[in-house]
Design goal:
Elements lengths: L1 H10 L2 H7 L1 E4 L13 H7 L3 H6 L2 E3 L4 H14 L7 E4 L12 H7 L2 H17 L4 E2 L23 H16 L11 E7 L18 H8 L1 H8 L4 E4 L3 E2 L2 E2 L4 H11 L5 E3 L8 H4 L5 H11 L4 E2 L3 H11 L5 H17 L12 H7 L3 H14 L1 E5 L11 E4 L24 H6 L7 E4 L9 H11 L4 E7 L18 H11 L5 E6 L15 E4 L7 H9 L65 E3 L3 E2 L3 E2 L4 E10 L5 E11 L10 E10 L4 E9 L5 E2 L5 E2 L3 E10 L2 E9 L2
Parallel strand pairs: 1-2, 1-10, 2-3, 3-4, 4-5, 5-6, 6-9, 12-13, 12-14, 14-15, 15-16, 19-27
Antiparallel strand pairs: 7-8, 11-16, 17-20, 18-20, 20-23, 21-22, 21-26, 24-25, 26-27
Helix pairs in contact: 1-15, 2-14, 2-15, 6-17, 7-8, 7-17, 8-10, 11-13, 13-14, 17-21
Bound molecules: beta-D-glucopyranose.
């Protein structure tokens, strides 16, 4: 197979090779809807039609008809008949939209996550997509950053679990023959999730050890699962922009990890080497990016305009270009595009498969599992004969898909009100918008009061509109907008039970919500089946089981705040008045709600941790067990979490690190024993010399319902 591609490469002219490395958006192509407008953008970019004819891939094309037209027109003009790769952002669903990844993280359910990616791949591939720009696996600790909703959260272990699940779901086992799957592109390499101040695209500053320990494992996990592509990040890593960072791409990805798939820049990131201040012009940007390892340049034309001259002047070896082109051709070959450039694309299958009942069923299941019950003081579940007022800007709003759902339609989304209609008679429900997202009028408040005054319970459907998170959607104040806090206050005056359902793309500062209302369900952006999932949960037809995969700060002043932090030399003890210990004068150190937290309609009791031995050697193992009992009145699913603490390391170790978890279903009164296996391998970490080893000494195995509520078993390692 490789041989063929090498033969093909040999037949290509330098111009044709360079054009393969360029990725442009759909509107540049003949055959795209609304074509004929390409002259302007081409002139702006300084490239010719010839480059477009020979380009290697397209960004954002989808829809069987359009994609087939583009491919047909392209092949008609392309001398060697090299098909285009169609790439798009299919992040959490194509048309059937699943919960945003941060919500999926809260499901702790890798099987369903995989299934969601498989469905997304199927819908996208019949619509003509070959590669998805997902999974995004950037570790996140700062909820001000708008893109936390695209990540599965703050934990390296959990992120790695989901990275693998998504890659399996997107790619399956055989991309060549299974045309219902797409190649995955893990992003954004590396550490895009750690911008200073939580401001998108901002500088990332961290030690190499921290990068290795916390930020890289999820990308590595995706690649271990066979992920075909990597996208570079916009940010700098240790002073060098990721898209021109040889150490990250050539040294780490290629040489150390052995990755031989395609590396693509993020949108415009090659040219951005100029404003970053590491390239004086496009020519230098092109040279730096290619030499550092970027194969495909997305949406700027530094390669197209400069590589030929760089080769002809002897400043760059053509073999560098050949390597990149070969990788792209090999991916096309692997996807079966030379045999069938139209691959899975089919207008009939689009009709048949997209948004099928089966797909929506999985979307609902995952939405149910992704919502997290944050508070419940004897109001939930609702009773079907109660009179309920649904109040708030999300009561009848389809903006529940999240900011990364280009192909999804808000019209298809089940609104909160629609969900309620499946549970109780229309005569039991009143609805009022109550406020807009960021403004409120007296009339709106009056309307809300009128709608709610005869109700038995008020459900507040409030949150951030989707534009308030996602790319470029950063906020310095992460409270619910003032207008909606006013609405909550107004409803509180009615002195009725208040249930809040939150739609948002980040952990919020919950003051004004959690202290003012009796129950809070964090729904995130649940996707197409939002209303059905929420109604099932609120009426008790499903029991909430989501657990936070990112801490909720007490206030933005604590950020970054995350569970696997260090103790410091002056940890705060029980005496909160003590001055010379690490603390704030005005707020607690702890987040409002910790990683792993979530309530259920039942309660679970944990026993002490019992260990099969207190001594671990290099090749033995310890079994750590707890008994978990459902002490409530309904069946429920518990996520039993297992953490480890290394009491004294060569470098400071986190207070706890997630090493495993198990989800169990328990009937009322039922007890199950949950056992985790501890091995020496789990105790390894990066030392000051970057060696990855363990140290003899004392450890703790911690097991419990969340990262803050853990029973401890002590053991020691002696190798
Ligand atoms: C985003 C990427 C995305 C790309 C292509 C960029 O702005 O950062 O996540 O894949 O656009 O749409």
């Amino acid at each position: 197979m490789e041989k063929n591609m090498e033969n093909l490469l040999e037949q290509m002219t330098l111009e044709e090779k360079i054009a393969q490395l360029m990725q442009l958006a759909t509107f540049f192509y003949k055959g795209a809807a609304g074509d004929g407008e390409i002259t302007g953008p081409l002139e702006d970019m300084g490239i010719t039609n010839e480059v477009v004819q020979n380009s290697g891939s397209v960004l954002g094309a989808s829809g069987a008809k359009e994609v087939s037209n583009i491919q047909k027109e392209h092949l008609a003009d392309n001398r060697l008949g090299i098909p285009l790769l169609m790439m798009a952002d299919i992040v959490h669903g194509f048309k059937t939209i699943f919960p945003v990844p941060l919500a999926i993280g809260c499901s702790w359910d890798q099987e369903l996550a995989e299934k969601s990616a498989e469905i997304a791949a199927k819908e996208a591939s019949v619509s003509g997509v070959h590669v998805t720009f997902a999974p995004m696996v950037d570790l996140v600790r700062d909820p001000r950053w708008g893109r936390v909703m695209e990540s599965t959260g703050e934990d390296p272990f959990l992120n790695a679990v989901f990275a693998k699940a998504f890659v399996r779901g997107f790619q399956g086992d055989d991309l060549t023959h299974d045309h219902f799957r797409v190649a995955a592109c893990v992003k954004h390499f590396a550490a895009y999730g750690a911008p200073e101040g939580g401001r998108d695209y901002n500088t990332v500053n961290m030690s190499e050890r921290q990068l290795l320990e916390s930020y890289l494992p999820a990308y590595k996990a995706a690649l271990d699962e066979g992920c075909e592509m990597v996208m570079t990040a916009f940010n700098t890593v240790d002073g060098i922009p990721a898209s021109g960072n040889k150490k990250l791409m050539r040294d780490l990805l290629r040489d150390e990890w052995g990755f031989d798939g395609v590396i693509i820049s993020d949108w415009g990131a090659v040219k951005e080497l100029i404003p970053h201040g590491v390239a004086e012009d496009e020519r230098e940007a092109a040279k730096k990016a290619l030499e550092a390892g970027v194969d495909i340049e997305m949406m700027t034309a530094c390669y197209a305009k400069s590589l030929q001259e760089l080769v002809e002047s002897g400043e760059m070896s053509e073999s560098l270009i050949d390597e990149s082109v070969l990788r792209i051709l090999q991916l096309k070959n692997k996807l079966g595009l030379f045999e069938n450039p139209y691959r899975g694309t089919s207008e009939e299958l689009e009709e048949e498969l997209i948004m099928s009942t089966e797909h929506r069923k999985v979307a609902k299941e995952l939405a149910v599992k992704s919502c997290v019950l944050l508070k419940n003081e004897n109001v939930l579940p609702l009773k079907k004969n109660q009179k309920v007022a649904i109040v708030g800007p999300f009561a009848t709003n389809g903006d529940v898909l999240g900011p990364w759902s280009w192909h999804g339609s808000r019209d298809d989304a089940v609104k909160v009100y629609d969900g309620f209609l499946t549970k109780t008679a229309a005569s039991n429900i009143t609805v009022a918008k109550g406020s807009d997202i960021e403004t409120v009028t007296e009339d709106q408040l009056t309307e809300a009061v009128n709608a709610a005054k005869d109700a038995d319970v008020i459900v507040l459907a409030v949150g951030e509109e989707s534009e308030m998170s996602g790319e470029g959607g950063c906020r310095a104040d992460i409270k619910l907008p003032e207008a909606q806090l006013t609405l909550i206050q107004k409803m509180k005056e009615l002195d009725k039970p208040l249930v809040t359902v939150l739609f948002n793309g980040r952990p919020l500062d919950l003051h004004g919500i959690i202290d003012q209302t009796d129950a809070v369900l964090e729904a995130w952006y649940p996707g197409t089946e939002a209303g059905h999932a929420i109604a099932d949960l609120l009426y008790g037809d499903a029991n909430p089981s989501g657990r936070l995969s990112m801490s909720f700060p007490y206030s933005v002043g604590q950020v970054p705040v995350y569970y696997n932090c260090f103790n410091t030399g002056r940890p705060q003890g029980d005496d909160k008045q003590e001055r010379y210990v690490t603390h704030y004068l005005d707020i607690p150190n702890e987040p409002l709600l910790p990683f792993g937290y979530g309530l259920s309609y039942t309660t679970f009791a944990y026993s002490e941790v019992s260990l099969s031995s207190e001594k671990l050697s290099g090749d033995s193992e310890i079994k750590a067990s707890v008994h978990v009992t459902n002490t409530g009145n309904v069946a429920g699913e518990e996520t039993v979490q297992f953490y480890i603490r290394d009491i004294a390391g060569e470098v400071v170790r986190p207070l706890r690190e997630l090493k495993g978890y198990e989800k169990i279903m328990l009937n009322p009164g039922e007890t199950k024993v949950v056992t985790f296996t501890i091995t020496e391998e789990q105790l390894r970490y990066y030392h000051s010399d970057l060696s990855f080893t363990s140290d003899n000494g004392a450890f703790q195995a911690l097991i419990g319902p969340n990262s803050n509520d853990l029973a401890i078993g002590n053991f020691y390692l002696k190798k």
